[in-house]
Write a structure and sequence with these properties.
alpha+beta, Immunoglobulin-like, von Willebrand factor A domain-containing protein 5A, VWF_A, seven-stranded mixed beta sheet, VIT
């Protein structure tokens, strides 16, 4: 196919792609052997063929087969896909181009043919025969403030005065030895937005792809409202499979996944409210639980759990999460304490669809907060179990963000959620909206709500607008967000919104061949074929049969090596992408005699450069963690020598400075600890926020009227310049 370039477009029906005298018939087939059979027949007859399909055991991975190329021939493959960019806790949208796929747990012989099990040779970084070039074009209804990345980028270039379109590119010679991550920051991040898109002219006007579609995005700036202190049953599922012994990233100074997860779990235990219930499961090929059933959160149960957490190891083999989940769901509910499940895992589990379906079946009795650890965590599993249960999903590739995201999710679980969510539309006469997205019942602070709708009726021929209103209640208070939008949308040849809507519908119904009912399978097939969005039951195939001479001779595969990393886990996936709001054009160029630094050399020099600037930060963080370790389950601190060492004083002076000597000494110790934590932990706000909240609640229960006097005395004793606006009391 030299210079022919087979281009796969996500079309809703068979298409003849014309290139010079080449005709390629691209069809979407039922995946049940038909596509594979046609591909294999074409290859055996000497034709050139292309097959694209979802991996049978992980729907977040796609495999592409291209066969019967002439020696020295070149082929260009363009893959286009759409996705919703996930929202970070600081309001950024995150785009990731994954460089590696960790080999994931293979439980049975049935998954032996998965592309996840492909083995490729490992070479030193300087010996890789390719580099990665990437240009990202970002557009938004709101201004783009900045773009950050874990890789070296060119300076941002704005493509207009209003800063609604920008472009960045990777530095030249990028080796693609790590995920490429972009964090995109927008102005007016909490402003709602609506995008309308016209349908395909050759489709039925009332069909999914033929009618106009709308995408509504709400990200309300909700106030923090804490629920009852003693509310909730918190169950933590910790992956202790062998792969958790790997590092979070490829750098040699990166923390082990199991160690980062243990530190996070310890902080979560310290941050739980008194009176709630909790339990901890460690799982792998088997599972163990700390307590026969969830226990009340007390000083004794917290201390026992923390001792056991410190001894957790990545020693349980594979990743079997379904069995412990079934055990949790089988347990009795605790009246007044809704179940909240926190899942930490780094890989793929056997039967992803069955796990998601089981979580869905039990979604009325719990919420699931999921965390994908490391660069190869299964997005299908992590997003799926959170989506069907009304929880949140987070992906963690560095220690500095694991605790932040886990504690933010715990805050979501502790805060009151938004309820009674409803959406109303106001259109010109003759036009209405039909919801395509599933009904949303709850929403937390920091969450974004994306809704898809199909517009039915007659679109106005003159300039006109519509309005959509989101109404909800928060602790009995009615709130709303409104946004007005134009009904004269620009033409979009990619039909991005339509395909995002189709993808949302397919994800909701498609639970694999064993878990999807016949009726929903038929719906998935129809939506997939009409929209061109792949599902578990469809695949794309292209066959070129016009060659004058069939390709003959034995096939000689070309093995593409992967870079040597400290985890020795990655599989390089060369492809090009085009996302919803981000177009990435990638090319792999041959490199010969290029002098470049190896991973180890880079890591060593990087460590030398960063050690000096990080020493102070690490030292300060360790002191804060030590202070946190001394806090009691009820939120208080004891007046003892360990506390005085952290505060830089002595026990006698601390006791003498107490203005309320007739009170419990823990009251004075807690005021000192909270003020010191608040003043010295500003750079680690994520660490102390929930702990401060718990401590202040304890103080109000034990010394409410004397708190102002104690605070002033503590400020003077510790010589802190905390302003009244900074105080947490």
């Amino acid at each position: 196919m030299e210079n022919a370039g087979v281009y796969l477009w996500n079309l809703s029906k068979a298409l003849w792609v014309v290139h010079s005298t080449t005709f390629v018939n691209i069809e979407q087939f039922l995946k049940e052997l038909k596509a594979q059979r046609n591909y294999e027949n074409a290859i055996s007859q000497g034709h050139q063929a292309y097959l694209l399909e979802e991996d049978d055991y992980s729907r977040d991975v796609f495999s592409c087969n291209i066969g019967n190329l002439q020696p020295g021939a070149k082929v260009g493959v363009t893959l286009r896909y759409v996705q919703e960019l996930p929202l970070e806790t600081d309001g950024a949208l995150r785009y990731v181009l994954p460089a590696i796929l960790n080999p994931r747990y293979q439980l049975s012989e049935q998954s032996a043919n998965s592309c996840l099990n492909i083995k490729t040779p490992i070479v030193a970084l300087e010996d890789l025969p390719y580099t990665l070039s990437m240009v990202a074009t970002i557009t938004s209804q709101h201004g783009i403030e900045r773009v950050q990345s874990n890789c070296s980028l060119s300076p941002i270039q704005y493509l207009g005065h209003d800063k609604t379109s920008a472009q960045v590119s990777l530095a030249e010679g990028h080796k693609f030895d790590q995920d490429v991550e972009l964090l995109i920051y927008y102005s007016e991040v909490h402003s709602p937005s609506v995008a309308v898109e016209m349908g395909m002219q050759d489709m039925k006007p009332d069909s999914l792809m033929g009618s106009p579609s709308a995408m509504v995005s709400f990200y309300p700036d909700l106030p923090e409202v804490e629920c009852s202190r003693a509310c909730g049953e918190f169950v933590f599922l910790m992956d202790c499979s062998g792969s958790m012994g790997s590092r979070l990233s490829y750098r040699n100074d990166s923390q082990l996944r199991i160690e980062a997860a243990k530190e996070t779990l310890l902080l979560l235990l310290k941050s739980l409210p008194m009176g709630c219930y909790f339990n901890i499961y460690r799982f792998g090929s088997s599972y163990e639980k700390f307590f026969p059933e969830s226990v009340k959160y007390t000083q004794e149960t917290m201390e026992e759990s923390m001792k056991r957490v410190k001894h957790l190891r990545a020693d349980l083999g594979g990743t079997e999460i379904l069995t412990p989940l079934l055990n949790i769901y089988k347990g009795p509910s605790i009246p007044g304490h809704p179940l909240q499940v926190f899942v930490f895992t780094d890989g793929e589990v056997n039967g992803t669809f069955r796990v998601i379906n089981e979580v869905k079946l039990n979604s009325k009795k719990h919420r699931c907060f999921s965390f994908g650890i490391g660069e190869g965590a299964s997005t299908s599993l992590i997003k799926g179990i959170a989506r069907v249960s009304g929880g949140t999903a987070e992906f963690i590739t560095g220690k500095d963000r694991m605790q932040t995201k886990a504690l933010a999710s715990l805050k979501c679980a502790l805060n009151c959620s938004v309820e009674d969510i409803s959406l109303s539309w106001d259109f010109p006469p003759g036009l209405s909206a039909s919801m395509l997205s599933p009904e949303k019942t709850v929403m937390f602070k920091g969450q974004r709500l994306i809704i898809y709708a199909q517009l039915t009726g007659t679109m106005p021929q003159v300039e006109s607008s519509g309005e959509v209103c989101l109404k909800y209640t928060l602790q009995g208070k009615s709130l709303e967000n409104r946004v007005t939008f134009s009904l004269q949308p620009k033409t979009n040849a990619s039909f991005t919104i339509h395909r995002l809507a189709a993808k949302s519908l397919i994800q909701m119904k498609d639970l694999g061949s064993h878990e999807t009912s016949d009726g929903e399978k038929e719906d998935v097939l129809n939506m997939s074929i009409q929209s061109g969005v792949l599902s578990s039951f469809t695949a794309f195939i292209a066959v070129r049969s016009d060659l004058t001479q069939p390709v003959q001779g034995p096939l000689a595969p070309r093995v593409i090596p992967r870079p040597m990393t400290f985890s020795n886990l990655p599989i390089i996936c060369p492809y090009s992408t085009d996302g919803e709001m981000l177009n990435a054009c990638l090319s792999y160029d041959s490199i010969e005699d290029t002098e470049s630094m190896s991973v180890m050399e880079y890591s060593q020099s990087s460590t030398k450069e960063t050690n000096l600037q990080n020493d102070h930060k690490v030292c300060g963080e360790n002191v804060l963690l030590h202070l946190v370790s001394l806090q009691k389950a009820n939120g208080s601190w004891e007046l003892d020598e360990e506390l005085t060492e952290i505060l830089g004083t002595n026990l006698e002076d601390m006791k003498a400075a107490n203005p309320a000597k007739d009170q419990d000494p823990s009251v004075w110790a807690t005021v000192l600890a909270v003020l010191w934590l608040h003043a010295n932990g500003k750079d680690l706000k994520w660490l102390g926020e929930l702990l401060e909240r718990k401590a202040v609640a304890w103080l109000h229960d034990h010394a409410d009227s004397s708190i102002p006097m104690l605070v002033q005395a503590a400020k003077s004793f510790l010589e802190l310049s905390v302003t009244p606006d900074d105080l947490v009391f």
